[in-house]
Specification:
Blueprint lengths: L20 H10 L2 E6 L15 E12 L2 E16 L2 E4 L8 E4 L1 H12 L5 E7 H6 L7
Antiparallel strand pairs: 1-6, 2-3, 2-6, 3-4, 4-5
Length: 139
């Protein structure tokens, strides 16, 4: 995204990954997918889950070095995906994918995460769903 830049403005200065949303958007667009920011003032009941391919959360994460934990947070990306009717937390900090449950449990999980201050939610959708806005249930 920044081929002429000496330092990548879309990545952590420390080189630890931590890519910004522009990298995720570009990667998804390369796959023919779109990304929609979820306004957390809306009710999660408005999500048309059948039209959403997956979810990406950006959540605060504690910074630690061995046993030492620092008093600040950095942002961490977490993916959520449905498989055979069960939604899974695919957080890379977990040893393995963790089942969240069905639609009701997913909404409760997202509600809990979004209530923790600086968390953000993004919806991964097809381009046609993005263009038509059908990731949102009609009112």
């Amino acid at each position: 995204l920044a081929p002429g830049a000496r330092l990548n403005p879309h990545r952590s200065v420390l080189g630890t990954g931590n890519y910004d949303i522009n990298v995720i958007v570009a990667a998804l667009q390369g796959l023919g997918l779109g990304l929609v920011w979820w306004d957390k003032r809306r009710s999660l009941e408005q999500l048309a889950l059948g039209h959403i391919l997956g979810f990406i959360l950006n959540v605060p994460s504690k910074v630690s070095l061995g046993f030492l934990t620092f008093p600040f947070h950095r942002k961490h990306w977490v993916a959520i995906r449905e498989l055979h009717g069960i939604f899974y937390n695919l957080d890379s900090k977990l040893r393995a994918p963790v089942p969240i449950g069905g639609e009701a449990e997913l909404r409760e999980f997202l509600r809990d995460v979004l209530s923790q201050g600086l968390s953000e939610l993004f919806l991964v959708v097809s381009r046609s769903v993005e263009d038509a806005g059908t990731w949102l249930r009609p009112e």
